[in-house]
Amino acid sequence: MTEASATLVDSGPSALGRLMAPVSAGVNDIAGLFRLLGRTLTLISQGKREQGALLEQMYIIGNRSLVFMCITMGFIGAIITFQSAVQSQRLLPDLTMLGATFIKLLVRDMAASLGAMPLATRVGAGIAAEIGSMVVTDQVDALRMCAADPVDYLVVPRFIAATIMGTAVLIIAGAVAILSGMVIANGVFDVNFHTYLNFSMVTLGDVGLGVTKMVAFCAAIAIISAQRGLSTFGGSEGVGTATTRAVVGSSFAIIVLNFFISGLGYFFVPS
User: Fold this and answer.
1) N or C end of the chain: smaller count of CB under 10 Å?
2) How large is the average pLDDT for residues 186-203?
3) In this structure, how many other beta carbons lie within 10 angstroms of the beta carbon of residue 90?
4) How far is the C-alpha of 232 from the C-alpha of 245, rounded, in Å?
């Protein structure tokens, strides 16, 4: 065997290992997420949380995110309405169904999917940074030494608060998007307020599908961000890395969940 062929043979397994390492890490990461989710759901009914911890997290996640989300969704609603009206006028001069179409899309999908992205940057980054800081400063180890479960003490209140208050914030922000779109439609395209606020195309199935997406997205943001925070290492630099991974992972999960939930909705809740 020549030296060149021996080198190829020796480097083959190691090269394959390097190729498979990201896949293996991704599988372990997803498995860890599901384990944390299962543990969190179990502790919701069985765990004992600190008094007032849930209310504190509901205030931090809900109240402090409301203004940011309303402003963001207000601009999104205005932009989508404006662009939709411009494109519609090229085909039909009649814009009487502009509001009805926009409201249906917003209720069924856009309020959840478009709203969850900026919510992930606000809520997900905060959860990952807070838990990650506690990990690198050994506060999580101190909890374990005191016989306190870090998942019950840190993850469960944030998971419940993010699911409840995140959904509420998305609903309110979606309403703001409708109002901002109505203002643009009336001010720019002279669409009457009553004509724009047309909910005739919205069904209970659309509302159910939209709320399901909101709950799923908010729960995913909370559990992914908490998992990234608990796996933090390396001091302040590690906290920054965990925060970035939380936002990226949450955004990716929102896209994937939206694909599957929309697919199920296509068959069970047709538009």
Assistant:
1) N
2) 92
3) 7
4) 10
